[in-house]
């Protein structure tokens, strides 16, 4: 409880992931994590892209998942404590509208978050749930709105294998039924 009170969510989630995301099963955990990523996107976006990269593709040292949407992006206006809502959602369980991102971040060995809002890109990188860069304005960009998550699940906690295309398609049936267009790409010979 003290970790949650001080905002060090990543430590609590990494120590006891089953308390936050349910029973951790190596075969289903990556799919459950992907579902967490889609929570906010499916409510705010018209289009979602999901890319799965297997270890070894393009020299990657681990499996990677990328989720990108065309939703409104995240608010980057600092609150009275100087923290932006997007920043808070990546770090705190109690953050409003975090859509499960703090869990995904905490359970990843690497996690990169980008939000595009008002024609500017805002980014932050994490390793094992801890920030390795500040939440920063990367300047003007070609996107006017949306988010991108690019992460590798920590194989010490969760399975490092990607979910199968079939398992993801089953998950996406409900998302597509809600009128959201989803583009799934798998960059691996075995998926």
Give an account of the 3D structure.
The chain is globular, with a radius of gyration of 16 Å. It has helices at 2-5, 9-15, 18-21, 29-44, 85-91, 101-106, 165-177; strands spanning 47-53, 64-69, 108-117, 120-127, 130-131, 136-140, 145-153, 181-187. Helix 4 packs parallel to helix 7 (165-177). The protein is built from seven helices and eight strands. A hairpin with a 2-residue loop joins strand 4 and strand 5 (130-131).
Short description:
The chain is of the alpha+beta class.
Poorly predicted regions:
1-7
State the separation between the terminal residues, measured CA to CA. Answer: 39 Å
**Main beta sheet, described?**
8 strands, mixed
Q: In percent terms, what proportion of residues is strand?
A: 25-35%
| Class from helix and strand fractions | alpha+beta
The helix content, as a percent range, equals: 25-40%
The general outline is globular
The count of DSSP E runs of length 2 or more, i.e. the number of strands, is 8
Write down the secondary-structure element order.
HHHHEEHHEEEEEHE
Tell me the Rg in angstroms.
Answer: 16 Å
């Amino acid at each position: 409880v003290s970790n949650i009170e001080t905002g060090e969510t990543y430590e609590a989630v990494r120590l006891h992931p089953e308390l936050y995301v349910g029973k951790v099963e190596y075969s289903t955990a990556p799919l459950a994590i992907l579902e967490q990523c889609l929570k906010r996107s499916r409510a705010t976006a018209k289009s979602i892209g999901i890319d799965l990269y297997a270890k070894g593709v393009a020299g990657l040292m681990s499996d990677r998942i990328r989720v990108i949407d065309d939703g409104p992006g995240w608010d980057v206006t600092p609150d009275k404590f100087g923290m932006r809502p997007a920043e808070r959602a990546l770090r705190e369980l109690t953050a409003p509208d975090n859509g499960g991102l703090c869990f995904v971040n905490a359970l990843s060995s690497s996690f990169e978050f980008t939000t595009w809002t008002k024609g500017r890109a805002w980014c932050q990188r994490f390793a094992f749930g801890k920030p390795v860069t500040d939440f920063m304005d990367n300047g003007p960009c070609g996107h006017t709105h949306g988010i991108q998550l690019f992460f590798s699940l920590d194989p010490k906690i969760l399975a490092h294998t990607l979910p199968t295309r079939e398992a993801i398609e089953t998950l996406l049936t409900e998302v597509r039924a809600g009128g959201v267009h989803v583009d799934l790409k798998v960059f691996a010979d075995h998926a």
